[in-house]
Write a structure and sequence with these properties.
By secondary structure, the protein is mostly helical. 76% of the residues lie in helices and 0% in strands.
Length: 729
């Protein structure tokens, strides 16, 4: 059911990669047979990655300008022409140019398929579609190795077969009913920026290009020199590619459950060990064991790419993952340009067996860098690590990757929506009435219809919401979310109408709207508060509590780097300040509600509360009255903090004492009378939070200062000194 809408598209992809897979094994073997120098062979093969790099850079712009079907047709035909010319004119310069064209077209074709699949995928099934697409690509490449046995390599027949497959790949796409999606501008991330964020991720990605591309491109030549030809050569290369497929599954499990850098270290050690063993296995004619060894070496090298992605994604925000993926793809391409050429030079100087010496030396340098990074930076806990997702460098930064931010479509296009939009353009009021009728008939489709109509210029979003929620009141919340998702610029108008005309359940709805607009959520809450604080003060506190609960829950679901960047404590403090400006008479209740919803923000919120309290009391009465009122207010506030969030009570007390030193004795008394300062609890708190030792010193210093003031005050009698709260403290 997942792949049914994409069968023709995936079949086109399979045919394309099947012809491409044949060309990858055919070209080096044919050049070697023609007596081309090894270093020239390596240079020609490296040109594929030059084209791949150009395709990765420009494919998105081409898709925006030309469209998906035309780009894929161009790629299939040009790649077919390139392989046919390679068979007719086997000059190294011409072959190099044709490899650049091939690499460019393969990158653009993969970007086209990925964009098509991404547009049709949902948030739930996109990871599954990505895996299916990767399996189709790798299976086609694997199968292409065996087409080498259909004809002698000295003939042009194999070039023609490859060209036919590449040309045929166009047909399923052309007859498909799939329409090309709109391509939006994507963010970019400079290579220097991503290197600073994740040195290990960038370096391991570059080394993946060196090792994987260097090995796969030069392996047919190495095998041919050691008598592995014809069907055995196809089996040998097939084993290498199968390793790149199947080893991703155990590596994924290990990466997700253990320290990723240690797993990466083990992978590189494995590459070194098996690279040393392959020449010995082949020299002893242990062909079967050499298949296993080459599968492991190739598989471990290929897995460095998704490992480097996971390592890098831990350091970037979720909305930056796609940009980081694009940068990593370019870094891999740079490595894959260098790898085959350097490997060919080493083989040309020291012989074909030096291919695995190149692998060993390259892997040792990567091993040293991994060890260095492990010493310089502490690893994240395994449960906080980014998930490993099966990936191969395909030429596209895939939004199918479930780790990327999912862009929810504004609405789903269907016949009812099309009719409603057509009517709305001609007669907006009639369209609203029709939407109400459709919602009565099918309440589940009400939010989709509302979202579609809200995009029409002359539709009154308040009237639309009123009409559809009248027909489907149980859908009030999802309809509001759908409207905001489709037309965020009208959010203020909708919130204003809901809080004045629809008071029955607006708390849930307003919070849902605010949550759907992370950048403007506080504005929506503030607007709602302005409309409700006079007549619905209880609902104001309920709305604040619910918003803070949603914020806290969303933080728990966030990745560590996103949680840090969210700056939730400042968000909570800003929410409190905004609501207090709207409803100053509820300042204490709002501060407590916000602090309880997000205890980590209690210090900042308390600081703002104390400042508001002091400013208010100083404006209202005499200094003596102000001091007394402030003292009473902070005592009441602290009493409720001790009851609701005792684990933060000591920190809040410290904040209060910093702002109101004369309250120190009351703070100590409140803490002593509660369970917060029980011996075992205090020991645990101090162990967990070393700053509590400093707090004790601050409290004692504040009390001692007051005692000293009493001692030098001539107006206080000895009797007063003995009964004063400060002296008792």
């Amino acid at each position: 059911m997942t792949i049914k809408p994409f069968v023709l598209m995936l079949f086109s992809c399979f045919l394309l990669m099947l012809g491409y897979g044949l060309s990858n094994i055919l070209l080096p073997v044919r050049m070697q047979n023609d007596g081309v120098n090894l270093s020239e062979i390596g240079l020609v093969l490296s040109m594929l990655s030059v084209g791949f790099l150009l395709g990765a850079i420009y494919s998105r712009k081409l898709l925006q300008r030309v469209g998906h079907i035309r780009i894929f047709a161009m790629c299939g035909s040009l790649t077919s022409v390139a392989i046919l010319i390679s068979g007719l004119f086997p000059d190294p310069i011409i072959l190099g140019l044709m490899r650049i064209i091939t690499g460019f077209c393969i990158a653009c074709a993969n970007a086209t398929i990925d964009s098509w699949l991404s547009d049709s995928a949902t948030e739930k099934n996109r990871g599954r579609i990505l895996s299916i697409n990767q399996m189709v690509i790798m299976t086609a490449l694997f199968s292409g190795q065996f087409l080498l046995n259909l004809a002698p390599i000295t003939d042009t027949t194999l070039f023609i077969i490859s060209g036919v497959l590449l040309s045929l790949s166009i047909t399923p796409i052309v007859i498909s009913k799939q329409k090309g999606p709109q391509i939006e501008e994507s963010q970019s991330m400079s290579l220097l920026t991503i290197l600073k964020l994740s040195p290990l991720g960038v370096v391991s990605c570059f080394y993946c290009g060196l090792l994987y591309a260097g090995l796969l491109n030069m392996l047919p030549i190495y095998a041919n020199d050691y008598g592995i030809t014809d069907l055995n050569l196809s089996i040998f290369m097939g084993a290498a590619i199968s390793g790149a497929i199947f080893l991703q599954f155990p590596i994924a499990y290990l990466s997700d459950n253990f320290d990723r850098r240690k797993i990466m270290l083990g992978m590189v050690i494995t590459i070194i060990a098996f690279s040393l063993s392959i020449p010995m296995l082949i020299s002893f004619d242990l062909f079967t064991l050499s298949l296993l060894a080459i599968a492991i070496v190739t598989g471990m090298s290929a897995c460095l790419y998704p490992m480097s992605m996971s390592e890098t994604f831990e350091k970037v925000l979720k909305e930056q993952i796609l940009a980081a993926m694009s940068s990593l793809l370019l870094i891999y391409a740079l490595g894959s340009i260098v790898g085959p050429y350097v490997a060919s030079i080493v083989m040309n100087i020291f012989g074909s067996s030096a291919l695995f010496i190149f692998m060993v030396i390259t892997a040792i340098t990567l091993l040293a860098f991994i060890i260095l990074r492990m010493q310089q930076r502490t690893a994240l806990p395994s449960e906080a690590q980014e998930d490993f997702i099966m990936q191969t460098p395909s030429g596209a930064a895939s939004s199918l990757d479930p780790r990327t931010e999912y862009a929810h479509p504004s609405f789903e296009n269907n016949p009812e929506v099309e009719v409603a939009i057509d009517l709305a353009i001609k007669n907006p009021s009639a369209a609203v009435n029709m939407a109400k009728a459709l919602a009565l008939k099918n309440p589940d489709n009400a939010s989709n219809i509302a979202a579609a109509l809200s995009t029409i210029e002359h539709i009154d979003i308040a009237k639309l919401y009123s009409a559809i929620t009248t027909a489907a009141p149980e859908m009030a919340k999802p309809i509001a979310e759908a409207l905001i998702n489709a037309s965020p610029e009208q959010a203020g108008e909708l919130v204003d109408w809901i809080t004045t005309e629809y008071p029955e359940q607006y708390t849930n709805i307003i919070v849902a709207i605010a949550h759907a607009m992370p950048d403007n959520g506080l504005d929506m809450i503030e607007l709602a508060a302005e409309n409700m604080h006079e007549e619905h003060s209880d609902e104001l506190l309920e709305m604040t509590e619910q918003y803070m609960t949603n914020l806290s829950n969303s933080l728990e679901e966030m990745r560590p780097v996103d949680r840090t960047a969210a700056d939730s404590e400042n968000t909570a403090s800003e929410l409190y300040n905004r609501l207090t400006d709207v409803s100053p008479e509820h300042s204490a209740e709002l501060a407590l509600t916000v602090s309880e919803g997000l205890p980590e923000s209690s210090n900042m919120v308390t600081e703002s509360y104390i400042q508001n309290l002091v400013d208010h009391e100083n404006e209202q009465g005499t200094p003596a009255d102000a001091i007394e009122n402030i003292g009473n207010a902070v005592n009441d506030y602290m009493s409720q903090i001790v009851e609701s969030i005792p684990e933060y009570a000591v920190d809040v007390a410290s904040t209060i004492v910093d702002s109101v030193p004369e309250s120190a004795s009351e703070m100590v008394e409140l803490l002593q009378n509660s369970d917060v300062l029980e011996e075992e609890h205090l020991a645990m708190s101090i162990n967990d939070k070393p700053e509590h030792n400093e707090l004790e010193e601050q409290l004692l210093e504040a009390v001692q200062t007051q005692i000293d003031d009493i001692e030098v005050d001539d107006h206080i009698t000895e009797e007063d000194k003995q009964t004063s709260p400060e002296k008792d403290a």
